[in-house]
Write a structure and sequence with these properties.
9 helices; 6-stranded mixed sheet; 26% strand; alpha/beta
């Protein structure tokens, strides 16, 4: 077995993987100041736990309700049942071919469940219309892979498009929205740069900015740091952490990077066609990861108080 067989990708220095006799030893260094991962629950979960309040469906950004989806009668995801509540930083973790991308397509209304239901803010995803509330950032786009003759500001401005309006020429708010999005993504200094002159990490932050122009309540990231170097990945996670904690945007991030998930996310859903694990990220352990990947996994967490545990 090789590292490629697992579908895992580790870039940050804080994460180390070694393969020995079909057993994976995962070491996560928590000596650095942790962020969202130190939160056992999101603030909304704490509030609901104390008050016993039951959230209205429209208050829940994403709800998978006994969701199945099949290609040519072959189930790709089976009986998926969990919610992502307001203010969460939720990670979707799983090996290649586990159904993660299908799950995101279902959440974005690009696919219709074979059975069950997917709700966005209380409405079926396939008939959802308030798309200004949802931002989506793919891995890469054609514009970032070519000599596309546009500036960062022009690409970010595309995020403000909401259909043809003959009065759009008189709108004065759009420029300030773009400026705000550039600032939130930390790329104001790159506004006039050509897209083709950016690093991969800068391109991904540009795509984040484009998705922020209309101030979404939910931001969906599909393996956003694929191809980004270690320094760029750290900057990216810092930015996303700020969007979640300072601006209250609910984050859903598909990832292969267990180390980043355990540091950044508040909750995690491990998918391998079925739900293998769903809960606070601090409860993600070797048993859950072994069930997810199908072979033994040892998890060693290093922090200032313990050499390992």
């Amino acid at each position: 077995m090789t590292l490629l067989d697992t579908g895992w990708k580790y870039l940050l220095p804080a994460t180390h993987v070694s393969l020995r006799a079909a057993r994976v030893n995962l070491v996560v260094d928590q000596s650095k100041p942790t962020t969202a991962a130190v939160l056992n629950e999101t603030e909304s979960q704490k509030l609901n736990a104390r008050s016993g309040e039951i959230l209205n469906p429209e208050q829940v950004p994403v709800r998978f309700n006994e969701t199945w989806f099949s290609y040519n009668s072959e189930p790709v995801v089976r009986d998926i049942d969990f919610s992502i509540t307001q203010g969460e930083f939720a990670a979707i973790l799983g090996p290649n071919g586990s159904g993660k991308t299908t799950l995101m397509k279902l959440a974005l209304g690009l696919l219709k469940p074979t059975s069950g239901q997917v709700l966005l803010f209380g409405e079926p995803a396939e008939s959802f219309t308030d798309w200004h509330r949802v931002g989506y950032v793919p891995q890469r786009t054609q514009a970032t892979e070519s000599r596309f003759p546009a500036s960062v500001r022009e690409i970010v401005n595309f995020g403000s498009y909401s259909g043809f309006s003959p009065l759009a020429i008189f709108s004065r708010g759009r420029s300030s929205q773009v400026d705000d999005a550039l600032e939130m993504a930390g790329i104001t200094n790159l506004a006039d740069r050509r897209v083709s002159d950016l690093s991969v990490g800068q391109q991904q932050r540009m795509l984040i900015a484009r998705s922020l122009v209309r101030r979404p309540d939910l931001l969906v990231l599909d393996e956003p740091v694929a191809g980004v170097d270690a320094a760029g990945e750290e900057q990216f996670h810092t930015m996303v952490r700020r969007l979640n904690r300072d601006f209250g945007i609910t984050i859903v991030m598909v990832s292969h990077d267990i180390g980043a998930v355990m540091r950044e996310a508040t909750t995690c859903a491990c998918i391998n066609r079925d739900i293998v694990f769903h809960g606070p990220v601090h409860q993600l352990d070797a048993q859950a990861l072994s069930g997810l990947y199908g072979f033994p996994v040892d998890v060693l967490l290093h922090d200032p108080e313990h050499t390992h545990r």
